Protein backbone atom coordinates (compact mmCIF):
# COMPACT_ATOMS: atom_id res chain seq x y z
CA UNK A 1 0.00 0.00 0.00
CA UNK A 2 1.37 3.39 -0.87
CA UNK A 3 1.20 5.97 1.86
CA UNK A 4 -0.04 9.10 0.19
CA UNK A 5 0.24 12.50 1.76
CA UNK A 6 -0.45 16.00 0.48
CA UNK A 7 1.66 18.88 1.77
CA UNK A 8 -0.23 22.17 1.63
CA UNK A 9 1.72 24.89 -0.17
CA UNK A 10 0.37 28.32 0.76
CA UNK A 11 3.53 30.32 0.20
CA UNK A 12 4.99 30.05 3.70
CA UNK A 13 8.42 28.61 4.04
CA UNK A 14 10.49 25.77 2.83
CA UNK A 15 8.52 22.69 1.87
CA UNK A 16 11.39 20.74 0.39
CA UNK A 17 12.64 19.50 3.77
CA UNK A 18 9.14 18.35 4.75
CA UNK A 19 8.72 16.63 1.39
CA UNK A 20 12.09 14.91 1.62
CA UNK A 21 11.53 13.77 5.20
CA UNK A 22 8.18 12.23 4.22
CA UNK A 23 9.71 10.53 1.19
CA UNK A 24 12.49 9.13 3.33
CA UNK A 25 9.89 7.29 5.44
CA UNK A 26 8.28 5.86 2.33
CA UNK A 27 5.43 8.27 1.65
CA UNK A 28 4.28 9.33 -1.77
CA UNK A 29 4.17 13.12 -1.51
CA UNK A 30 2.11 15.68 -3.40
CA UNK A 31 2.92 19.34 -2.75
CA UNK A 32 0.01 21.54 -3.72
CA UNK A 33 -1.70 24.85 -3.07
CA UNK A 34 -4.67 23.95 -5.27
CA UNK A 35 -7.97 23.89 -3.38
CA UNK A 36 -9.31 20.93 -5.37
CA UNK A 37 -6.18 18.86 -4.79
CA UNK A 38 -6.22 19.66 -1.07
CA UNK A 39 -9.95 18.87 -0.87
CA UNK A 40 -9.31 15.46 -2.43
CA UNK A 41 -6.36 14.51 -0.24
CA UNK A 42 -6.51 11.43 1.96
CA UNK A 43 -3.93 12.78 4.40
CA UNK A 44 -2.79 16.38 4.85
CA UNK A 45 0.25 18.10 6.24
CA UNK A 46 -0.03 21.81 6.95
CA UNK A 47 3.53 23.08 7.37
CA UNK A 48 4.73 26.66 7.52
CA UNK A 49 7.10 29.12 9.05
CA UNK A 50 6.33 32.79 9.53
CA UNK A 51 3.74 35.13 10.97
CA UNK A 52 0.26 33.86 11.82
CA UNK A 53 -1.67 36.55 9.91
CA UNK A 54 0.43 36.02 6.77
CA UNK A 55 -0.19 32.28 7.00
CA UNK A 56 -3.97 32.64 7.30
CA UNK A 57 -3.94 35.19 4.45
CA UNK A 58 -2.01 32.68 2.33
CA UNK A 59 -4.67 30.03 3.01
CA UNK A 60 -7.55 32.40 2.30
CA UNK A 61 -6.08 33.71 -0.97
CA UNK A 62 -5.87 30.16 -2.28
CA UNK A 63 -9.32 29.16 -1.04
CA UNK A 64 -7.77 26.56 1.28
CA UNK A 65 -9.49 27.36 4.58
CA UNK A 66 -12.69 25.41 3.90
CA UNK A 67 -11.03 22.37 2.27
CA UNK A 68 -8.69 22.01 5.26
CA UNK A 69 -11.53 22.45 7.77
CA UNK A 70 -13.68 19.90 5.96
CA UNK A 71 -10.77 17.49 5.75
CA UNK A 72 -10.25 17.60 9.52
CA UNK A 73 -13.96 17.55 10.37
CA UNK A 74 -14.48 14.46 8.22
CA UNK A 75 -11.93 12.65 10.36
CA UNK A 76 -9.15 12.36 7.80
CA UNK A 77 -5.60 12.61 9.19
CA UNK A 78 -4.17 16.12 9.44
CA UNK A 79 -0.81 17.20 10.83
CA UNK A 80 0.04 20.84 11.40
CA UNK A 81 3.69 21.73 11.84
CA UNK A 82 4.97 24.91 13.55
CA UNK A 83 2.86 27.75 12.11
CA UNK A 84 0.61 25.07 10.62
CA UNK A 85 0.00 23.75 14.14
CA UNK A 86 -0.75 27.20 15.51
CA UNK A 87 -3.28 27.82 12.72
CA UNK A 88 -5.38 24.92 14.05
CA UNK A 89 -6.26 27.29 16.91
CA UNK A 90 -9.24 29.60 17.20
CA UNK A 91 -7.26 32.78 17.77
CA UNK A 92 -3.68 34.02 17.73
CA UNK A 93 -2.31 37.01 19.59
CA UNK A 94 0.72 37.38 17.31
CA UNK A 95 0.89 41.03 16.11
CA UNK A 96 -2.75 41.72 17.03
CA UNK A 97 -5.64 39.31 17.26
CA UNK A 98 -6.24 36.99 14.29
CA UNK A 99 -8.72 34.19 13.68
CA UNK A 100 -7.33 30.75 12.90
CA UNK A 101 -8.85 27.60 11.42
CA UNK A 102 -10.57 26.98 14.77
CA UNK A 103 -10.24 23.22 14.61
CA UNK A 104 -9.03 23.08 18.20
CA UNK A 105 -10.40 25.79 20.51
CA UNK A 106 -7.73 27.87 22.13
CA UNK A 107 -5.33 30.76 21.81
CA UNK A 108 -1.83 31.17 20.44
CA UNK A 109 0.04 33.30 22.95
CA UNK A 110 3.58 34.60 23.39
CA UNK A 111 6.18 32.32 24.98
CA UNK A 112 6.95 34.01 28.33
CA UNK A 113 10.02 36.26 28.05
CA UNK A 114 10.68 35.87 31.78
CA UNK A 115 11.50 32.61 33.52
CA UNK A 116 9.43 31.36 36.43
CA UNK A 117 12.26 32.60 38.64
CA UNK A 118 11.90 36.10 37.23
CA UNK A 119 14.94 36.46 34.98
CA UNK A 120 14.78 37.45 31.32
CA UNK A 121 15.03 34.59 28.83
CA UNK A 122 15.87 34.43 25.15
CA UNK A 123 13.02 34.62 22.63
CA UNK A 124 12.53 32.94 20.18
CA UNK A 125 12.85 29.60 21.91
CA UNK A 126 15.28 27.92 19.52
CA UNK A 127 16.80 24.52 19.84
CA UNK A 128 16.34 20.94 20.92
CA UNK A 129 14.00 20.32 23.82
CA UNK A 130 12.77 17.18 25.53
CA UNK A 131 9.19 16.13 24.90
CA UNK A 132 7.15 15.49 28.02
CA UNK A 133 3.69 13.91 27.87
CA UNK A 134 0.91 16.17 29.12
CA UNK A 135 -1.02 14.87 32.13
CA UNK A 136 -3.39 12.09 31.10
CA UNK A 137 -2.28 12.39 27.48
CA UNK A 138 -2.48 9.16 25.52
CA UNK A 139 0.12 9.08 22.76
CA UNK A 140 -0.67 5.52 21.76
CA UNK A 141 -3.22 6.39 19.09
CA UNK A 142 -1.32 9.39 17.73
CA UNK A 143 1.74 9.96 15.58
CA UNK A 144 3.68 10.03 18.87
CA UNK A 145 2.85 6.35 19.51
CA UNK A 146 6.46 5.21 19.18
CA UNK A 147 8.02 8.35 20.67
CA UNK A 148 9.36 8.01 24.18
CA UNK A 149 8.98 10.66 26.85
CA UNK A 150 12.16 12.72 27.07
CA UNK A 151 13.20 12.36 23.45
CA UNK A 152 14.42 15.60 21.88
CA UNK A 153 12.85 17.54 19.06
CA UNK A 154 13.80 20.80 17.34
CA UNK A 155 11.74 23.94 17.88
CA UNK A 156 11.96 27.53 16.70
CA UNK A 157 9.12 29.69 17.97
CA UNK A 158 8.08 32.83 19.82
CA UNK A 159 4.42 31.90 20.30
CA UNK A 160 2.73 28.70 21.44
CA UNK A 161 -0.74 27.21 21.40
CA UNK A 162 -2.75 26.99 24.64
CA UNK A 163 -5.93 24.95 23.98
CA UNK A 164 -9.04 25.87 25.95
CA UNK A 165 -9.46 22.23 26.93
CA UNK A 166 -6.17 21.02 28.39
CA UNK A 167 -6.97 17.50 27.19
CA UNK A 168 -5.99 18.65 23.71
CA UNK A 169 -2.39 19.06 24.83
CA UNK A 170 -0.39 15.95 23.97
CA UNK A 171 3.08 17.12 24.90
CA UNK A 172 4.95 20.05 26.24
CA UNK A 173 8.52 21.05 26.74
CA UNK A 174 10.04 23.15 29.45
CA UNK A 175 11.41 26.62 28.79
CA UNK A 176 12.56 28.80 31.65
CA UNK A 177 10.41 26.79 34.03
CA UNK A 178 7.29 27.27 31.90
CA UNK A 179 5.41 24.51 30.14
CA UNK A 180 5.38 25.36 26.46
CA UNK A 181 2.97 23.42 24.25
CA UNK A 182 4.90 21.10 21.96
CA UNK A 183 2.05 19.02 20.51
CA UNK A 184 -1.74 19.15 20.44
CA UNK A 185 -4.21 16.59 19.20
CA UNK A 186 -7.84 15.73 18.70
CA UNK A 187 -9.30 12.82 16.76
CA UNK A 188 -6.95 12.14 13.85
CA UNK A 189 -5.55 15.63 14.00
CA UNK A 190 -2.15 16.39 15.45
CA UNK A 191 -0.27 19.64 15.68
CA UNK A 192 3.47 19.76 16.33
CA UNK A 193 5.09 23.00 17.40
CA UNK A 194 8.43 21.31 16.74
CA UNK A 195 9.73 20.42 13.29
CA UNK A 196 9.61 16.63 12.83
CA UNK A 197 11.41 17.09 9.50
CA UNK A 198 14.33 18.68 11.37
CA UNK A 199 14.31 16.49 14.47
CA UNK A 200 16.51 13.68 13.20
CA UNK A 201 15.45 10.07 13.73
CA UNK A 202 12.87 11.00 16.40
CA UNK A 203 11.09 13.31 13.96
CA UNK A 204 11.19 10.84 11.08
CA UNK A 205 9.60 8.24 13.34
CA UNK A 206 6.72 10.63 14.08
CA UNK A 207 6.18 11.32 10.36
CA UNK A 208 6.36 7.61 9.66
CA UNK A 209 3.60 6.91 12.18
CA UNK A 210 1.50 9.72 10.78
CA UNK A 211 1.59 8.45 7.20
CA UNK A 212 0.70 4.94 8.40
CA UNK A 213 -2.39 6.18 10.28
CA UNK B 1 20.84 22.67 33.97
CA UNK B 2 18.17 24.09 31.71
CA UNK B 3 19.38 25.01 28.28
CA UNK B 4 20.68 22.35 25.95
CA UNK B 5 23.93 23.30 24.28
CA UNK B 6 23.91 22.54 20.56
CA UNK B 7 26.81 20.69 18.98
CA UNK B 8 27.16 21.94 15.42
CA UNK B 9 29.19 20.49 12.55
CA UNK B 10 30.69 23.32 10.51
CA UNK B 11 31.46 22.73 6.85
CA UNK B 12 33.49 25.42 5.09
CA UNK B 13 32.92 25.30 1.37
CA UNK B 14 34.94 26.50 -1.61
CA UNK B 15 33.37 25.83 -4.98
CA UNK B 16 32.14 22.24 -4.86
CA UNK B 17 34.50 21.16 -2.06
CA UNK B 18 34.61 20.89 1.70
CA UNK B 19 37.78 22.72 2.76
CA UNK B 20 39.58 23.64 5.94
CA UNK B 21 42.15 26.29 6.74
CA UNK B 22 43.98 27.88 9.64
CA UNK B 23 43.02 31.43 10.63
CA UNK B 24 40.59 31.18 7.65
CA UNK B 25 43.61 30.93 5.33
CA UNK B 26 45.70 28.21 3.70
CA UNK B 27 42.63 26.35 2.58
CA UNK B 28 42.99 22.62 2.03
CA UNK B 29 40.48 20.47 0.18
CA UNK B 30 38.96 17.81 2.45
CA UNK B 31 36.44 16.21 0.09
CA UNK B 32 32.83 16.02 -1.04
CA UNK B 33 30.69 17.98 1.44
CA UNK B 34 27.72 15.63 1.00
CA UNK B 35 29.58 12.59 2.31
CA UNK B 36 30.66 14.52 5.40
CA UNK B 37 27.22 16.08 5.94
CA UNK B 38 25.59 12.65 5.90
CA UNK B 39 28.18 11.29 8.29
CA UNK B 40 27.66 14.14 10.76
CA UNK B 41 23.88 13.83 10.55
CA UNK B 42 24.09 10.11 11.24
CA UNK B 43 26.50 10.70 14.13
CA UNK B 44 23.90 12.96 15.74
CA UNK B 45 24.93 16.54 14.93
CA UNK B 46 22.35 18.95 16.36
CA UNK B 47 22.76 21.23 13.37
CA UNK B 48 24.91 21.71 10.28
CA UNK B 49 26.56 25.02 9.44
CA UNK B 50 27.74 25.68 5.89
CA UNK B 51 29.94 28.68 5.15
CA UNK B 52 31.08 29.39 1.61
CA UNK B 53 34.45 30.97 2.27
CA UNK B 54 35.06 32.59 -1.09
CA UNK B 55 31.53 33.53 -2.13
CA UNK B 56 31.90 37.09 -0.84
CA UNK B 57 34.93 37.56 -3.07
CA UNK B 58 33.75 35.96 -6.26
CA UNK B 59 29.98 36.29 -6.16
CA UNK B 60 27.46 33.46 -6.23
CA UNK B 61 28.63 29.99 -5.55
CA UNK B 62 27.53 26.41 -5.80
CA UNK B 63 26.20 26.72 -2.29
CA UNK B 64 22.50 26.49 -3.16
CA UNK B 65 23.11 23.23 -4.98
CA UNK B 66 25.15 21.84 -2.07
CA UNK B 67 22.37 22.75 0.38
CA UNK B 68 19.71 21.16 -1.80
CA UNK B 69 21.68 17.94 -1.97
CA UNK B 70 22.17 18.03 1.79
CA UNK B 71 18.44 18.56 2.40
CA UNK B 72 17.85 15.30 0.58
CA UNK B 73 19.48 13.29 3.36
CA UNK B 74 19.90 15.54 6.37
CA UNK B 75 16.98 16.00 8.77
CA UNK B 76 18.39 18.43 11.29
CA UNK B 77 18.53 22.23 10.95
CA UNK B 78 20.96 23.76 8.49
CA UNK B 79 22.41 27.26 8.69
CA UNK B 80 24.02 28.57 5.53
CA UNK B 81 26.25 31.57 4.88
CA UNK B 82 28.71 33.04 2.43
CA UNK B 83 28.06 35.59 -0.28
CA UNK B 84 24.48 36.39 0.73
CA UNK B 85 23.70 39.93 -0.40
CA UNK B 86 19.95 40.17 -0.94
CA UNK B 87 16.60 38.93 0.30
CA UNK B 88 16.40 36.95 -2.95
CA UNK B 89 19.64 35.11 -2.08
CA UNK B 90 18.04 34.17 1.25
CA UNK B 91 14.82 33.03 -0.44
CA UNK B 92 16.84 30.74 -2.74
CA UNK B 93 18.75 29.15 0.13
CA UNK B 94 15.64 28.61 2.26
CA UNK B 95 13.87 27.01 -0.70
CA UNK B 96 16.85 24.71 -1.11
CA UNK B 97 16.36 23.48 2.46
CA UNK B 98 18.29 25.91 4.67
CA UNK B 99 16.59 26.90 7.92
CA UNK B 100 18.69 29.94 8.73
CA UNK B 101 21.17 32.15 6.94
CA UNK B 102 24.41 33.56 8.35
CA UNK B 103 25.43 36.95 6.98
CA UNK B 104 28.70 38.76 7.58
CA UNK B 105 30.17 40.88 4.77
CA UNK B 106 26.96 42.18 3.19
CA UNK B 107 25.56 43.08 6.62
CA UNK B 108 28.69 45.09 7.46
CA UNK B 109 28.45 46.93 4.12
CA UNK B 110 24.69 47.46 4.41
CA UNK B 111 23.31 46.81 7.91
CA UNK B 112 19.75 47.35 6.67
CA UNK B 113 19.98 43.89 5.06
CA UNK B 114 19.67 42.40 8.56
CA UNK B 115 16.36 44.19 9.07
CA UNK B 116 15.09 43.18 5.64
CA UNK B 117 15.85 39.50 6.19
CA UNK B 118 14.42 39.51 9.73
CA UNK B 119 11.22 41.26 8.59
CA UNK B 120 10.68 38.89 5.69
CA UNK B 121 11.62 35.58 7.30
CA UNK B 122 11.70 36.28 11.04
CA UNK B 123 14.59 36.91 13.42
CA UNK B 124 15.03 33.19 14.04
CA UNK B 125 16.18 32.90 10.45
CA UNK B 126 18.75 35.70 10.53
CA UNK B 127 22.10 34.73 12.05
CA UNK B 128 24.63 37.53 12.31
CA UNK B 129 27.99 36.01 11.44
CA UNK B 130 30.93 37.87 12.97
CA UNK B 131 34.54 37.05 12.17
CA UNK B 132 36.74 38.84 14.63
CA UNK B 133 40.41 39.34 15.42
CA UNK B 134 41.73 40.33 18.82
CA UNK B 135 43.14 43.83 19.15
CA UNK B 136 44.23 45.14 22.53
CA UNK B 137 42.86 43.32 25.56
CA UNK B 138 39.10 43.11 25.64
CA UNK B 139 38.59 44.45 22.11
CA UNK B 140 38.05 42.62 18.85
CA UNK B 141 37.75 43.96 15.32
CA UNK B 142 35.22 42.65 12.80
CA UNK B 143 36.65 41.34 9.52
CA UNK B 144 34.77 40.73 6.31
CA UNK B 145 35.39 38.60 3.22
CA UNK B 146 36.40 35.60 5.32
CA UNK B 147 39.01 37.26 7.43
CA UNK B 148 40.61 39.27 4.64
CA UNK B 149 39.28 42.80 5.12
CA UNK B 150 39.29 44.94 8.23
CA UNK B 151 36.02 46.75 8.91
CA UNK B 152 37.02 49.08 11.74
CA UNK B 153 33.96 47.85 13.68
CA UNK B 154 34.18 46.66 17.27
CA UNK B 155 32.82 43.10 17.45
CA UNK B 156 30.81 43.55 20.64
CA UNK B 157 29.24 46.82 19.49
CA UNK B 158 28.47 45.31 16.10
CA UNK B 159 26.80 42.31 17.74
CA UNK B 160 24.57 44.66 19.75
CA UNK B 161 23.71 46.68 16.66
CA UNK B 162 22.94 43.53 14.66
CA UNK B 163 20.50 42.34 17.33
CA UNK B 164 18.78 45.74 17.35
CA UNK B 165 18.36 45.40 13.60
CA UNK B 166 16.72 42.01 14.04
CA UNK B 167 19.34 39.25 14.06
CA UNK B 168 18.10 36.29 16.12
CA UNK B 169 21.40 34.58 16.72
CA UNK B 170 25.12 35.37 16.57
CA UNK B 171 27.81 33.14 15.10
CA UNK B 172 31.15 34.33 16.45
CA UNK B 173 34.26 33.01 14.71
CA UNK B 174 37.62 33.85 16.20
CA UNK B 175 40.09 34.31 13.34
CA UNK B 176 42.98 34.05 15.82
CA UNK B 177 41.88 30.64 17.08
CA UNK B 178 40.29 29.21 13.92
CA UNK B 179 41.98 25.99 12.79
CA UNK B 180 44.62 26.12 15.55
CA UNK B 181 43.13 23.45 17.86
CA UNK B 182 44.30 25.65 20.75
CA UNK B 183 40.87 26.40 22.13
CA UNK B 184 38.10 28.92 21.53
CA UNK B 185 38.46 32.62 22.26
CA UNK B 186 36.51 32.30 25.50
CA UNK B 187 36.80 35.99 26.37
CA UNK B 188 35.39 37.03 23.01
CA UNK B 189 32.53 34.55 23.28
CA UNK B 190 31.72 35.75 26.77
CA UNK B 191 31.86 39.42 25.75
CA UNK B 192 29.37 38.74 22.93
CA UNK B 193 27.13 36.51 25.09
CA UNK B 194 26.90 39.18 27.76
CA UNK B 195 26.14 41.89 25.20
CA UNK B 196 23.20 40.20 23.50
CA UNK B 197 20.03 38.37 24.55
CA UNK B 198 20.00 35.91 21.65
CA UNK B 199 21.79 32.55 21.30
CA UNK B 200 25.52 32.68 20.56
CA UNK B 201 27.38 30.04 18.53
CA UNK B 202 31.10 29.87 19.26
CA UNK B 203 33.36 28.80 16.40
CA UNK B 204 37.06 28.34 15.90
CA UNK B 205 39.70 26.55 17.87
CA UNK B 206 38.41 23.27 19.29
CA UNK B 207 41.22 20.86 20.09
CA UNK B 208 40.25 18.95 23.22
CA UNK B 209 37.27 18.47 25.57
CA UNK B 210 38.50 21.12 28.02
CA UNK B 211 38.00 23.71 25.27
CA UNK B 212 34.32 22.78 24.94
CA UNK B 213 33.82 23.03 28.67
CA UNK B 214 35.56 26.44 28.82
CA UNK B 215 33.63 28.04 25.97
CA UNK B 216 30.28 26.89 27.39
CA UNK B 217 30.90 27.50 31.09
CA UNK B 218 33.11 30.58 30.95
CA UNK B 219 32.26 31.80 27.46
CA UNK B 220 28.51 31.15 27.95
CA UNK B 221 28.11 29.84 24.42
CA UNK B 222 24.68 28.42 23.58
CA UNK B 223 26.07 26.35 20.75
CA UNK B 224 29.53 25.24 19.66
CA UNK B 225 30.77 24.63 16.13
CA UNK B 226 33.30 21.94 15.27
CA UNK B 227 35.13 21.54 11.99
CA UNK B 228 38.51 19.93 11.57
CA UNK B 229 38.22 17.70 14.65
CA UNK B 230 35.35 16.07 12.75
CA UNK B 231 36.76 16.30 9.22
CA UNK B 232 40.03 14.62 10.22
CA UNK B 233 38.12 12.13 12.35
CA UNK B 234 39.97 12.96 15.55
CA UNK B 235 36.59 12.71 17.27
CA UNK B 236 33.03 11.94 16.29
CA UNK B 237 29.96 13.88 17.37
CA UNK B 238 29.22 10.99 19.72
CA UNK B 239 32.65 11.53 21.34
CA UNK B 240 31.95 15.27 21.66
CA UNK B 241 28.54 14.52 23.18
CA UNK B 242 30.17 12.16 25.66
CA UNK B 243 32.71 14.88 26.49
CA UNK B 244 29.88 17.34 27.08
CA UNK B 245 28.09 14.87 29.35
CA UNK B 246 31.30 14.25 31.28
CA UNK B 247 31.68 18.02 31.78
CA UNK B 248 28.03 18.17 32.96
CA UNK B 249 26.99 20.27 29.99
CA UNK B 250 23.38 19.54 29.04
CA UNK B 251 23.15 18.32 25.45
CA UNK B 252 20.58 16.47 23.41
CA UNK B 253 20.54 12.77 24.21
CA UNK B 254 20.71 10.91 20.93
UniProtKB/TrEMBL annotation, chain B:
GO molecular function: imidazoleglycerol-phosphate synthase activity; lyase activity
Catalytic activity: 5-[(5-phospho-1-deoxy-D-ribulos-1-ylimino)methylamino]-1-(5-phospho-beta-D-ribosyl)imidazole-4-carboxamide + L-glutamine = D-erythro-1-(imidazol-4-yl)glycerol 3-phosphate + 5-amino-1-(5-phospho-beta-D-ribosyl)imidazole-4-carboxamide + L-glutamate + H(+)
Keywords (A to Z) from UniProt: Amino-acid biosynthesis, Histidine biosynthesis, Lyase
Keyword set includes Endoplasmic reticulum: no
Domain of life of the organism encoding this protein: Bacteria
Pfam families: His_biosynth (PF00977)
Enzyme class (EC, first level): lyase
EC assignment: 4.3.2.10
This protein's pathway: Amino-acid biosynthesis; L-histidine biosynthesis; L-histidine from 5-phospho-alpha-D-ribose 1-diphosphate: step 5/9
Keyword flag Nucleus: no
GO BP: L-histidine biosynthetic process
Subunit record text: Heterodimer of HisH and HisF.
Described function: IGPS catalyzes the conversion of PRFAR and glutamine to IGP, AICAR and glutamate. The HisF subunit catalyzes the cyclization activity that produces IGP and AICAR from PRFAR using the ammonia provided by the HisH subunit.
Family: Belongs to the HisA/HisF family.
Protein name: imidazole glycerol-phosphate synthase
Protein species of origin: Steroidobacter agaridevorans
Gene: hisF_1
Amino acid sequence: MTMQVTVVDYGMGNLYSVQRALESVGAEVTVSGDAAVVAGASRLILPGVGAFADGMAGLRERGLVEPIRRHAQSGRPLMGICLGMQMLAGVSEEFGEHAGLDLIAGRVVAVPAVTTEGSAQKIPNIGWRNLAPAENADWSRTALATTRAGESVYLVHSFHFVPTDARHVLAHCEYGGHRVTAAVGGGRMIGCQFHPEKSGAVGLQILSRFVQD
Amino acid sequence: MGRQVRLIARLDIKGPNLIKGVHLEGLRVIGDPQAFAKRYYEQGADELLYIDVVASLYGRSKLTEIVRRAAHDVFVPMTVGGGIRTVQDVTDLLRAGADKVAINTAAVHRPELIREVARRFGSQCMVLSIEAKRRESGRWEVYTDCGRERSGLDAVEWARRGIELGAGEVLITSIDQEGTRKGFDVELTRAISEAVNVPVIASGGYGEPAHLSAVVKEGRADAVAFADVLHYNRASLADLRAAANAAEITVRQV
